[in-house]
UniProtKB/TrEMBL annotation:
Protein name: ROK family transcriptional regulator
Domain of life: Bacteria
Family statement drawn from the similarity comment of this UniProt entry: Belongs to the ROK (NagC/XylR) family.
InterPro entries assigned to the protein according to its UniProt record, in alphabetical order: ArsR-like_HTH (IPR011991), ATPase_NBD (IPR043129), ROK (IPR000600), WH-like_DNA-bd_sf (IPR036388), WH_DNA-bd_sf (IPR036390)
Biased composition (Low complexity): 422-447
Chain positions covered by the region annotation Disordered: 419-462
Amino acid sequence: MSVAAAVPATLDLAAIRARHTSLLLRLLWDGDRARVDIARDLGLSRSAISSIVSELIGVGLVEEGETRGSGRAGRRATLLSLNARSAALLAIDLGASHVRVDLMDLRCRPLASRTVPHEVLAGPAETYALVQRLVEGALQEAGMDPGRVALVGVGVPGPVDHDTGRVIRPPNMPGWDGEPVRAALQGRLGLDVLVDNDANLGAQAEVRFGPHRGVADLIYVKAATGIGAGVLLGGRLHRGVRGGAGEIGHISINEQGPVGRSGNPGSLESYAAAQVLVAQAEARRAAGAETRLSGPVTLPALVRHAETDPLAREIWEGAGHHLGVAISTTLNLFNPAVVVIGGRLAEAGPVFLNAARSSALSRTMQINAERTRIDLSTLGADAGVLGAGAMMLDQLLTPRGLPHLYAVSRVSMAAQQPKWTAGSRAPPAGEGAAAGSPSKARTSAPAEPTPPPTVFSSGGSI
């Protein structure tokens, strides 16, 4: 066989192994498993699984733990677990009125967190400077070297061009049009950055961490200062050609209605965005509507008294009704299993939810309504950072993401490795342990040189 004919076969075998490795890591992210379980789940031989596991132990991504009975006398299986501290993730939630930065492990558990009030209207430069300070503070609190951070994931409250990481004409972010968020933060932080719309991240958070985990067809509606939707179809996030799919807030629910921030008459946001509800409530209070709310009315007050104050209840029922009209359009278009409503407006609770359900389902064809649930999110304020974490995991736990994850894990392993000293009883790296054993995996240096960091694009290519 010629060399030219042999090369593609070699590349194919490497690609197949990388695919199996990424699937194995995804299984371990879901929970601890024995080698025999993994072999069964992936349809591979025990020897193939052992080879991949030895490699993952060698780079520090997998650890051996407790044993369990196999059901046969005298045989016990060792459980394998994902080493969640082998790499860190930085999740950044840019809201209309806040910035949150969470340093997380590979299971998206917080290692350090910072949240501060901040108006996105302050513009990119001031926002980036604040993000950099918060990132530095989180790393310092956790005692984490930046080299152990695999990725930075950012959610923004506006449309994002998925290929470039630029914000495109965001109605609720004046001064940000065309802003290269990904490139700007990569330059400031010196780390690979992914950027997406906050509603898309909410959808990813729900299917990985929420009560509807694993649902293939789900729509997440984030209702706050702006209103947007993340659309999951067949288990994949539907972004559209550039990343602008899901802008439900700019659907016209009344073509003769008021003009919203997007310039569209009768858009959902012109009826149900947070600032609109507050303005409506204050105008009705000033006009003598029955209420125990004092002026000026605020959104927290409306949320707090949603069930007890007549004016607040009226405002939330109206907002839910208008939101339901727009949701009915998504139900008839996509027929999802679940619609999850999150964001600050979801804090109003059942009065808001019930109005949205009633309005949506009464306008939806029976075939698209019968098996669909409409629920409030249970993730609360964590949805943004958890969604950023899910986005980063979806990039790293792929064949194209593995080299970068391996490189970062080696850095983490080296940072935690006990140093050899003349007076130590521990053997130098590579001595006194069988090849592939856990003890050698924890103390030996990687055999091959660490590859350079991989540059990730917002479009998902690495």
